[in-house]
Amino acid sequence: MTKITTYKEDLIESLKDPKEAAEYLNAAIEDGDREVFLLALRNVAQAHGGMSAIAQKTHLKRESLYRMLSKKGNPELNSIFNVLHAVGLKLSVEPEG
Description:
Layout: H1 7-14, H2 18-31, H3 34-47, H4 50-58, H5 62-68, H6 77-86
Helix pairs in contact: 1-3, 2-3, 4-5
């Protein structure tokens, strides 16, 4: 019997792949909505062990991560860099066009 999975489970599983995670985050950035990006980054964090694992890697408190990656979150750029680094990604800037 085949196990039926939810969209969220499939998404989290696919985000374990660094290329998939990078494309997912880039699509969120292109959307232009801060909330969309923060939710996407939260999903990537979940795919890489969850908030507890990311908290240990970034030396941030788990509660702070939840707050930072919420819809109302307002993370510092350094915190975003730390989370990206913890999941094996980096931020880069490209020219438009």
